[in-house]
Amino acid sequence: MVKLLAVVSAFIGVVVLACLKDLSAATATALFPVHITVVPTCAISATGLEFGVWSYEHGSVAANGSIGIVCERGINYHVSVNAGSHYGPGSHLRQMAGPDLHRLLPYALYKDAGRTQEWGDQNFSNSYPQGTSFPGTGTSRPQTHTVYGSVQGSTDRIPPGSYSDTLLVTVHF
Prior knowledge:
The structure is a single chain. By secondary structure, the chain is of the alpha+beta class. The chain has one helix at residues 2-24, and strands at residues 42-47, 61-71, 76-81, 94-96, 105-110, 134-137, 143-151, 169-172. A five-stranded antiparallel β-sheet has the order 1-2-7-5-4, with no helix packed on it. A three-stranded antiparallel β-sheet has the order 6-3-8, with no helix packed on it. A hairpin with an 8-residue loop joins strand 4 and strand 5. Residues 4-8 have low confidence and may be disordered.
């Protein structure tokens, strides 16, 4: 019996120590949230167009440039081209400036090789309402869109010199 009492006492001692140990090792927990928002991305680049050498007597001249777009797969986008630095609101023409700022050389930019669909920003900033943007869908690979330009022949004598304009090309996504 003494032996049994000693075994029971030892067992009770171990249980009490285990309970005391659990009381002294208290813990607390909290949730640690992790979050990220992935935004759609697109990048744009542009290669302007060079009409070369022109004389009003030679009629119209055409040239091509390009706009490069890289958008993530599945992202719908629109590429718009504004009116340029020398837009003539009364004439509704894009124009290049040369040596005489009062004599501007009109030109047009198109989305198609037949030069029937003017490229503009009518459905966005509306600085060039004669043309609309070019729609596309991202593929995660570079996509090139050709810009078709033309300078029409004129009976108006344009002063000799270098003519240029600068336009803002924007990808909306």
